[in-house]
Give the backbone structure.
Amino acid sequence: MIESGESFQDMLSHVLNILPLALLFALPVAALGGLALYLLRRRSLASTMTVLVLVPVVTTLAGVLGISGFMFTPALTTMLVVCLLVALVAVPAAIVLGRAIARHSVWEREARERERAAEQSRRELVAWISHDLRSPLAGIQAMAEALADGVVYERSEIADYAQRIGGETTRLSGMVGDLFELSRITAGALQLTMSAVPLRDVVSDAVAAQSPVAERKRVRVLENGEAWPVVSGSDPELARIVRNLVSNAIRHTPPDGTVAVQIDIDGDQALLAVDDSCGGIPDDEIGRVFDVAFRGTQARTPERSGTTTGGGLGLAIAKGLVEAHRGQIGVHNHGPGCRFEVRLPLAVS
């Protein structure tokens, strides 16, 4: 026992005598703590921090008991009570701090993943848009040079070239409009003028607007209303949602196929379902359907003709507009193709 008033040499001598015995009892406990940490390496951070706190407390306790020879003197009893109190305070604190640090770590990891996904989407968007802009611009330039050089001089040919230039210009205008709409959505600058909107009227207008495209492709568009829901939303944006979904369904439905648009009420939500005959979406792609500039495999992306698919922004814009209306949008394979479902809150009567 080290007494007060001892010289430094005497104290050092006592320490050297105590050290082997202390290490004999403390090191095995520390080794067991290290083993426990290794076994818990894949468990929660709270568990790891709890063990980290307990290891030095239990190690200290083992060393003190070993040195005392397990003779419970008042000093030893006081030391044991102190270790117990430290454990009672430190262990709950370690659990709370561990959970807080774990939540923060998870948040940081998810934030990094979202940032990487956003950066990947931006790169894909730039690549797709660059490719899609180049094609119509090259066509416009070639036809304009042909007209300027007099290569085309027949009235019918000039009219055909003018019509084709107009079509390519319309495509470019649509792509620029899509980019502007997407930028408003992603920047949070979209402002909706909310009102009570009959969903059946919006769907009828969108289907009528897409009828010429469907007729050229020999695709039947069927409209079926099980109910007449009135939703709370902005008429232009709701029309854009339905138009994008119907246009996407027509684009990916083969000739002589069918696109079905159904309206119903499910609880306190209006349900809009658009079925196509695309042949289904692969399981590894269905989760990316609403990603910016994602088009999928060739099986779902037919060859381009006089009209093109644009920049692959239609479904991404539809998703952003649905969420701006506090609704949900999803997709799953259904029958000969897939079904896009939109749920929107009903207007309060």
Notes: The first helix runs from residue 8 to 39.
